[in-house]
Description:
This protein is an alpha+beta fold. Strand 1 and strand 2 (28-30) form a beta hairpin. The relative contact order is 0.08. It is 24% helix and 7% strand. The protein has a domain at 11-54. It has two helices and two strands. It has helices at 11-16, 41-54; strands at residues 19-21, 28-30. Residues 65-84 are annotated as: Disordered. Pfam families: NIR_SIR_ferr (PF03460). Residues 20-66 form the Nitrite/Sulfite reductase ferredoxin-like domain. This is Nitrite/Sulfite reductase ferredoxin-like domain-containing protein.
Amino acid sequence: MADRTxxxxxxxxxxxxxxxxxxxxxxxxxxxxxLAGNLxxxxxxxxxxxxxxxxxxxxxxxxRQGGGDSLCxxxxxxxxxRGT
Length: 84
């Protein structure tokens, strides 16, 4: 095991700022929120720069905050909390 002599990281503070500790040693994922899923070309370019400098050179994009309802016909989206 590597000797870790640096300061201890407060993972709760990092998580609140969008950094999520991964299972692999010394790796974090970065969460980015985008209002309505919209990012400018400049914002996307900056994410690419950050990924190249600090990561593996790619950005993984998901739609975890919804998006499914936008594909349903009007009036048929239902309420998942009611099971409809």
